[in-house]
Amino acid sequence: MKRLWKSKLILLAILGILAFDLANDFPLVDIKETAIVVAIGLDREGEDYEVSAQIAVPQATDQAAMYKASVISGKGRTPALALENIGTHTGWYIKLSFCNVIFLGKSILEDDVMECIDYFIRTDRINDTVELCAADGAAKEIITATAALDDVSAFSVLKILERDAESASTVSFMNLKEFAMGYYSPSGFSLMPKIKVEPAVKPESGNGTDSGGQEENSGQGENSGGKKDEKIFNANTTVLFNKGKAAGELDEERTLLFNLVRHRTSESSVLLHDSDFYGHEADLMISLRDNKWRYDLKLENGRPVLDVYLTAKARIDDTNVIVPPHTLATSYTVPDNVLKDLEEKIESGLIGIFEECRDNDCDVFCIRERLYRTQNRYYEGYKDIVLQNAGVRVKAEAKSYK
Known about the structure:
The protein is α/β, with parallel strands linked by helices. It has 2 domains: 184 residues, no CATH class; 148 residues, GMP Synthetase, Chain A, domain 3. Helix content is 30%, strand content 34%. It has 11 helices and 14 strands. Strands 1, 2, 3, 4, 5, 6, 7, 8, 9 and 10 form a 10-stranded mixed sheet that branches. The chain has a 4-stranded mixed sheet with strand order 11-12-13-14, with helices on both faces. It is flat. The N and C termini lie far apart (71 Å). About 10% of the residues have low confidence.
């Protein structure tokens, strides 16, 4: 009997909750007055921030989902006020739930960037996995650019980041949460990919005549659609940060080497110059996969030393010389001398990154944080001098893969 009453009470409670929810007047947002933002660009003009919001507007089509980009901007003493001013001046409600990337303009990078992105960390209007990117110039230039292959420029950038996150190491990627964790860590180190806006590659216009003696249409020399202002995006450079301030950059080659000891890769390629390849001095394009790494921080005679171990499988994908045909049958086997050259390139490259960053007090290998976690009793005494006194040793081991 008691069980029956309990079941009835539970059933009545569930029905009551459902009745309350169904009767509730939910604060629905009118889609006709809502701007669905997919990307944000942040720039600074004097003491004011300029926020440029990119909106992907769905287009009616019977073939596939199509979007058209619109951009609305607002200014204010803080990013939050600038966003509020967009709604005040345009009547649109700015919805950030679908925002996937934030671009920080060059003017933002001149100071501690946390002053700018602190709002996005605190607010629950935006996801903390939103990607952060540094702009080579103004962030608004990226937001307003006409992409060559996408109607929305942010979608082009996101494709680059997503592709690299899944398979390659040519781009460094960083989201809001990870940047904040690095900023507040003992090392204070973080990074962002730098986005450069470049003109799309176009063949030269023909100036000849066709077989009928008529002059060729000069517009045929342009890329698809004939738009001269179409852009592509380069994200192969990395900006390094020390406690929120830009402290250096890694070029394309060093970005790739550094990422080999940060995340897994399946299709990274390293260019090896002037290597002896079956008796020829050759430039070799070597693909790397199955990379694994390990860090080991030790105290040697009172000096912190970080050992970095990296293993990877290598294969020669291309060369600029012609080799005997019998070598093609063993193309998966990389000669030992080439593997040695590759290992030396990786080792010297990573040590060079550390030494250059140390000069800017940028803890690129997070030695302070590793000391805090693994040798905590020495942290207080070493934290202010550890980076200048520390040493880094790199051991790379490359093997052929089949």
